[in-house]
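Exercise 7.
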Amino acid sequence: MTVITTQRLILRPFTAADLPEFAALQQDPDVNHFLPWFAPQTTANAMQLLRTQYLDSPAAYQLAVCLRTTNKAIGYINVAADDDHDLGYGMARAFWGQGYMTEAAQALLAHLPVTAYPFLTATHDVLNPKSGAVMQRLGMTYQYTYLEQWQPKNIPVYFRLYLLNRDGNNTRRFDKYWRMHPTHVVEKPPLRVDSEIGQLDD
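Solution. The predicted structure, written as tokens, is:
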């Protein structure tokens, strides 16, 4: 069982006792807007989502982000075990802007074995630049932006892809989404969110 502690946080596996905090986070429209699933409408729906994503998952790095003072979940963080090594995270709105997610992600990265995770990827909706700021603080570098018809919400979303090479292979590229999605661009710095994003240089 993976448990990681920092100055302010405990990263640990979710339990069924985390349901109230998990449900509140998932049902917040400001949080769910950037999540790849619809908000659970009932406590039973939230429990099913918690069970599917965390309680029944064998993955080692799907963790609740908890305050050390209370051991209550204020968010989640995970790294996919597939070839993408995708870093994902979310946090309750009351705890935004306090550096908690950067602290949690830095601790998780320090714990991940480089041999199993030689690189990490992460994506964020261009309308959620604060998520991208976390990626930048982790040392991840911007690669490209692509347009995806996001499911199951079936909405068009521009995602920015970031990459972190952890094994010294700084020539590595992760072009999977570039190849999958025909509408893609490399934005010129500074990265911006506006109506012209689809017209930036390819």
